[in-house]
Structure formats: structure tokens, C-alpha cells
Amino acid sequence: MRKENSPVDAAAVPAPGVLRRTGPVRVVGHALADDGGAFLGLGVSYFTALWRCKNDRQRLESDLAFLSRQGFNYYRMLSMVGWYAAWEGREVAPVAFTNREGKRVSAWPDYWRQLRDLIDLAYDRYGLRTQVTIFADAQLMPDKGARIDHMRKLLAEVLPGRKNKILLLEVANEAWQNGFPDARGVADLREFTEYLAGRTQIPVATTSNHEGSFRDLYTGSPADIATWHFSRDKGTDGGWKPVYDCWGLGDLPGCPPVSSNEPIGPGSSVDAETEPIRLVMAAAFAYAAKLPMYVFHSEAGVFGRTRFQDTPAVDRFRSVMRLLPPDLANWRRNDGKEADAPFTVFAGGKANRYWPEVDSRMDGCVRNTGSRKGRRFVCVPIGIRRGGLVLEARRPTHFSVHDPLSGKLVLSANSPTAERRVLPQGPGAYIILGTEQAPADHRASAE
Fold first, then answer.
1. Who wins on pLDDT, 6 or 411?
2. Is the Cα dihedral 19, 288, 216, 224 positive or negative?
């Protein structure tokens, strides 16, 4: 049983137009929930948030206000950073340290107050909860005892009174290259996850650790969420691999549900994505694959040399969030080919094939993953070719097809079993919402 010692949050007035969710966040099955019920976690990287809280409060508030208006409900910040030269001048220093270039950085004397102020401001004023990534650069405090003491202070100095305001505690960022190498690092990560999970009801994650395997880190873990960083390979399947790469980890027995924690985005390292349809569908696909959380990742949210307002697709997620059921991560998923899928899809005239699987690549889609709850279903066909996508109803069905970027209704139809329809390429992907008719309903409509 976890322990929590936190007084009631002080009342605060949100900014005009801000809808603030209330109550502590919990993980129910694969979904996030609070006092308002289930919800989809739509986050944004904002690594410099704590630095701006201390050094540029006006820019911080402008950014938070903008992100809140775009429908984001949390942001991911780094609670320490500065080991690498790229962060020179924007270090976040809970302790004094010498970076890898030999520069000495002084500790912030007001570190814990700034962290409290940031969390309070983001939630109280702008309705944004915080994902705290604790050891972004664990090299700043190499001693294990110092790291445990830092977590102890976080629990004591920050968490009381803020359990409604913090969405997630993540032990480390890409830990294998940030202070937790090899098997000893994995052991410490699991120990630190257990340390936090035993002392707070706030959900806890460990890290994205690509030097080892996902299962080594998360099987049997006390973590509530598994944070992971998926592919940025734009050379596969017409650039759609980063959208569907999360499928393989979405529903692993013995492992916690997964957050797409740092996906490809505008200005991301290794490779970048600026096409709004792929960025928006990466979130929609993740939710349909049973991931409860997706983080929009961009240069503006990492080093902040650019502005969020100028970032491609940052303002295009609201339609998806309105269309998708808030408990979608708890629906029963399917790969688009199995019996649960409401439609058979075609590519090159072949049933149950995606276009990367056939020689003719003029039509079809890359994936048509879906989820269902009873007779209700959601489908997210992605990577549709210029010849369109042929759908054949497996059962009598009423469905509507929506443009993910605008929410606009493209098609609404009743389809009997085996009826085929062709969706045009359109934006290259759609969100399909529908209900399969019960046998009695079908007989009545036929009469």
C-alpha cells in the first residue's frame, strides 16, 4: 500500500477559458483516470520549463497558456540538466557540478521553491499537469546515495499538496546514456522505481532504456507506466513507421501500459517530422494500440530556440481529442486483419493486405489498427495511397469517417455485410467511428 501525506490543495483561479481536471491521476487498466473519469493523456515536451520558471517567467506563462489552448493536458519537464555542452547557459542545477567540458555550475539555492512554483503555476493557472523527469542528467550526482537523497527531498519538499497536479514521476531520461549504464544501472533504476512507488500514489515510470530490452526493465516492475521512445525511421513504409512503431509494446503481459514519451516531431534529433497528418495520427494510433499517453516532441520543447506557436501541427490535435473516446486505451485492440476488425481492407485487390505487403502499391493503407468496446469500434487507417482504400464490412455496420486534422465528417454510412466502399486518399489517414448492428437491429432495418 502506498503512503501519501498531502494537505488539500489551495484554491486557485484558472486563466480565462481553462478547463482544469481535478483529483489525483491513477492508472485503471490501460487508461488514465481522475475525478472526472477516464481521459487520454496528451502531453508536450517542455524540457526548459524549470529554467524558464526561474529566469524567464513571462515566456513560461506565454508558452503554458498557448499549450493549454491547444488541448494539451500535461507537459514533460526535466528536473536537472547540464552535463552536456548543448545545455550551457540553461542548466538546471539542484546541486553544484562540473559538466563534461569542465565548466563548474553552481547549485540553485532556490531549486525546490522553483520546482514547486512551476508545478503550481502550470496546474492552477493553466490546467496543465506535470510529468517530472527526475534524473535527466544523473551524471550531475554520480553517487547513488546522493540520488536517493534527491528523491527523498522531492517526496518531502514538492509532492505534499500536489498529488492532483503531477501526472507522472519518471525516474530518468534515456537512462543508459544519462548516468545509469549497464546491468548495474538497470538494477538501480528498478530499485528507484520501487522506492518512489512505495512512497506516493502518483503514477511512476522508470525510463526509456534502449541499451537493454523493454522486458528486462519493465516485466514485473512496480512502475505504473512504461515510458518509451519509439522509432524515428522515416525510410520505412513511406515514412509511417514512427506512427505505428508503438504497436509492439502496447499490450505486453506482465508489463505496465506504455507512454509514447518522446516520439519523432518537428526539430527532433536523428530525424524530424513536420507533416501534421503523421504527427496527429501518431497520437491517435497510440491510443488505439492501448497506449494511454502521447507526448508531442519538438525543438521548441527541448532547447526552446524556436517558439511553440511556430511549430508544425502543435495546433492540430484538438479534433482527434474530441473524436476519440476518453477510455480508448481500455478497449480491445485489433490489428485490422483479425476477426474483431469491423472491415476487411484491400491492397492491390488482395484482401487483408496492407500496401507494403503487395507488389501493386497504388492503393491500400499501411495499417488499419482498431479497437472495440462491445459493438462500438474505432479504426485508424494510416498511409492511404492515391488509389484510395477499399473497405468491406465484415458485419452490418453504421460508421462515420472523419478527417483527423479538422474533425470534418467525410462519410456517414450504413453497410450490410460484404458491402465495399472506397475511401479516397484524402489527408492520407482517417478516424473511423462506428457501431456494429446487433442481429435483431439488422433484421429490423432489412424489413
1. 411
2. positive
Pairing of strands 166-172, 31-34: unpaired
End-to-end CA distance of the chain: 58
Q: How confident is the model at residue 447 (pLDDT cuts 50, 70, 90)?
A: very low
- CA separation for the pair 191, 294 (Å, rounded): 26
| pLDDT confidence bin for 440, thresholds 50/70/90 | low
Per the structure block, which three cell numbers stand in for 208? 526509456
The pLDDT of residue 269: 87
d(CA 141, CA 444): 70
Helix axes 57-69, 111-126, angle to 10 degrees: 30
Q: Return the beta strands (E) in 51-203 as ranges.
A: 74-78, 97-98, 104-105, 129-135, 166-172
Confidence at 427, pLDDT banded by 50, 70, 90: very high
- pTM recorded for the entire structure: 0.94
Residue 123: burial class (beta carbons within 10 Å; 0-12, 13-18, 19+): buried
Interatomic CA distance for residues 65 and 417, integer angstroms = 48
The SS3 of residue 325 is: coil
**Mean pLDDT over all residues of the chain?**
93
- Cα three-residue angle 171-259-300, rounded to 5 degrees: 80
CA distances in angstroms from 382 to 69, 119, 279, 341, 392, listed in the order given: 27, 36, 11, 15, 17
Angle at 42 between CA 181 and CA 113, to 5 degrees: 65
Q: Which class for 68: exposed (0-12), middle (13-18), buried (19 or more C-beta within 10 A)? A: buried
Spell out a b/e string for 296-317, using b for 16 or more CB atoms within 10 Å of the CB, else e.
bbbbbbbebeeebeebbbbebb
Burial of 288 (0-12, 13-18, 19+ CB in 10 A): buried
Question: How many Å apart are CA 326 and CA 41, to the nearest integer?
Answer: 9
User: Which pLDDT belongs to residue 242?
Assistant: 97
> In this structure, which amino acid lies at residue 300?
A
39 sits in which H/E element: strand 37-39
